Automatic annotation (TrEMBL):
GO terms for biological process: gamma-aminobutyric acid transport. Pfam families: AA_permease_2. The lineage of its organism: Eukaryota, Viridiplantae, Streptophyta, Embryophyta, Tracheophyta. The keyword Nuclease does not apply. It is found in: Membrane. Keywords: Amino-acid transport, Membrane, Transmembrane, Transmembrane helix, Transport. PROSITE patterns: AMINO_ACID_PERMEASE_1. This is Amino-acid permease BAT1-like protein. Belongs to the amino acid-polyamine-organocation (APC) superfamily. Amino acid/choline transporter (ACT) (TC 2.A.3.4) family. The gene is 25485463. It is a multi-pass membrane protein. Its main location: membrane. It comes from Medicago truncatula.
Length: 520
């Protein structure tokens, strides 16, 4: 923007237009959502969706089973380093294209006119289904944690405590989703406040738990155990230590997802071409530090891995719940303090699910605005408060339906959840891949950019995503049976077949990629 233009604005008595809105208009979109979020609010949405309390707590069993402390402590650092490279590449692209569509819009622009419709179609569907899978897994894991809290509060598994059926779990899951739908129908100013509260709660919760639990626990693990013990006794028939370690990475990589929320909130963020990238990078960076602290704090309270993973312990095999409960029970004779600590995590997971629905709805709003979804005109309507309320309730409904396979088989449900990691990361990698290949020469960087390192960082990010996609598709138990088969490649493969079939049979005839809605 030249100086003459600035002077003209001041002479006419107008405030200079927000840089994010100016860029949005240049990209061909009208400002329809309320642009009211600060960089702190933008960061808060991504940070509360990453939510280390949610991811680490939910999959701590996996980390303990596959490698134990070594897998937890060092696996986190390895996954964090590569995740930060993915985040940096995404932030660079976000700075150039700050729209709610995020990833699929980036793919369209970076793949070039010939490939734009197909590139944005694949990226968009993997992104939105991956997001729905994240919301499903987050709210379902909260329902499971609530069940464990009820079990421990009523006497524990060995003391006649109440164990709810799978139908009770799905009912709790549905109730949580309805609450998230109601909250996400509120104006963005309310969501902004709740998002910042969620970020504060996550940081505070991590610090409180990582200090209290090892301090309260009468028996603590040695530093040697925490930093060098490798658990290869997993009963899964896998003897190779490197293989076990790689499978154990799932906990870390599952936790470090969802930071595309900052991109989806850019049309509601002030100066989004600068603050969107800041939101992505700071959310990942602070989560990495907080997550490692949380893992260390909890692992210092681990003394008997087989007992923690045993389904006949008081918490029914839920490792972190058993750690908290035992720490207080052995010190004070009752486990009430441990149950309160689990309540802190439950609130964090609730906020995480709330933020997930927010990001889902913005993605559905943008994708339907470009005509990619069935009944698109319905999903991109905004209400008087400038909230895409139909998209909110669509996300709630789909996230409920995606949990229904848990009634038939928990294995089928876990395959669905795997889409949350693989599907989402494929959507993260596609625009980065187009940035370093088809758009290498013509990519125009925004205010935030990696300069000459963008190309190298981009390629490392793409290779990492390809690596984890293969890793998390490998068998996790031998011998392989119907019950032990890793259904991840089946779930992701089915998603790919459905998306490609929809494209070939119908989409290619009418979907032209992102549609501008402003006449420049």
């Amino acid at each position: 923007m030249g100086s003459a233009y600035d002077t003209k604005l001041i002479i006419n008595g107008h405030l200079p237009q927000d840089s994010g809105q100016s860029r949005l208009n240049e990209l061909g979109y009208k400002q329809e959502l309320k642009r009211d979020l600060s960089v702190l609010s933008n960061f808060a949405f991504s940070f509360s969706i990453i939510s280390v309390l949610t991811g680490v707590t939910t999959l701590y069993n996996t980390g303990l089973n596959y490698g134990g402390p070594v897998s937890l402590v060092y696996g986190w650092l390895i996954a964090s380093a590569f995740t930060m490279l993915v985040a940096l590449s995404m932030a660079e692209i976000c700075s150039s294209y700050p729209t709610s569509g995020g990833l699929y819009y980036w793919s369209a622009k970076l793949a070039g006119p010939n490939w734009a419709p197909f590139a944005s179609w694949i990226t968009g569907w993997f992104n939105i289904v991956g997001q729905w899978a994240v919301t499903t897994s987050v709210d379902f894991s909260l329902a499971q944690l609530i069940q464990v809290i009820i079990l421990l509060s009523t006497g524990g598994k060995n003391g006649g405590g109440y164990e709810g059926s799978k139908y009770v779990t799905i009912a709790i899951h549905g109730g949580i989703l309805v609450l998230h739908g109601i909250i996400n129908s509120l104006p963005i100013s309310w969501l902004s406040f709740l998002g910042q509260l969620a970020a504060f709660w996550n940081v505070l919760g991590v610090f409180v738990l990582m200090i209290i639990i090892p301090c309260v626990a009468p028996e603590r693990a040695s530093a040697k155990f925490v930093f060098t013990h490798f658990n290869s006794d997993n009963g899964e028939g896998i003897n190779s230590k490197p293989y076990i370690f790689l499978v154990g990475l799932l906990m870390s990589q599952y936790t470090l997802t969802g930071y595309d929320a900052s991109a989806h909130m850019t049309e509601e963020t002030r100066d989004a071409d600068i603050n969107g990238p800041k939101g992505i990078i700071s959310a990942v960076g602070i989560s990495v530090l907080a997550g490692w602290g949380y893992i260390l704090g909890i692992t210092f309270a681990v003394t008997d891995i087989p007992y923690l993973l045993n389904e006949n312990n008081e918490a029914g095999g839920y490792a972190i719940a058993e750690i908290f409960y035992l720490a207080f029970k052995r010190r004070y004779g009752h486990g009430i303090g441990g149950i309160i600590c689990l309540g802190i995590i439950a609130v964090a997971i609730f906020f995480c699910g709330m933020g997930s629905v927010t990001a889902n709805s913005r993605m559905a709003y943008a994708f339907s605005r470009d005509g990619a979804m069935p009944l698109s005109s319905l999903w991109h309507k905004v209400n008087k408060q400038e909230v895409p309320v139909n998209a909110v309730w669509l996300s709630v409904l789909i996230s409920f339906c995606m949990a229904l396979p848990s009634l038939g088989s928990i294995v089928a449900f876990e395959a669905m959840v795997s889409i949350a990691v693989i599907g989402l990361y494929i959507a993260y990698a596609l625009p980065i891949f187009f940035r370093v290949t088809l758009a290498r020469k013509r990519f125009i960087a925004g205010p935030f950019n990696l300069g000459r390192y963008g190309f190298v960082v981009g390629w490392i990010a793409v290779i990492w995503v390809a690596t984890i996609s293969i890793l998390f598709s490998l068998p996790v138990s031998y011998p392989i049976t119907i019950e032990t088969l890793n259904y991840t490649p089946v779930a992701v493969g089915c998603l790919l077949i459905i998306v490609l079939s929809y494209w070939v049979l119908s989409g290619r005839r009418w979907f032209k990629g992102p549609i501008t809605n402003i006449q420049i």
